[in-house]
Heparan-sulfate 6-O-sulfotransferase
Amino acid sequence: MEDRSHKVLLALVMLFLFAVIVLQYVCPGTECQLLRLRALSPAAAADPYRAEDETPARFVPRFNFSADDLLRRGGFNIKGGDLIVFLHIQKTGGTTFGRHLVRNIQLEQPCECRAGQKKCTCHRPGKRETWLFSRFSTGWSCGLHADWTELTNCVPSVVDSKKEVRLRPSR
């Protein structure tokens, strides 16, 4: 009987050690359980920048935009010479936003997108020139995922090449 109780005790100790090892693998650090409990408290949800262990936050937002800043509207003259150049930064939702620019914006003359075509036609009202320079309107004119430097060198030459010299707007 004593031999059997030793085996049960040994099995319980082994199970406990196994559980401790698994816990350390899944949740390293001493605060793990404490962090999980605090994450469920309503105070933790109130301020996303507050550290879980109440130490001063390492990340402090530099830009605190007011509601007026966020709702500010810029002037864009679709009938004039204004041009929107969309700089696509990879892995930031740029493809979705680029599609939104050509498909969902309510303008006097929205872009024409045909089923099965990757490019849309974004002409100014009454003109055969584009108001949007993006992969969804002009294609890969400046290369795949052109950066700021490539766009500043490429866009003027691409836009100007499609116009007569006398119709080119001054920049």
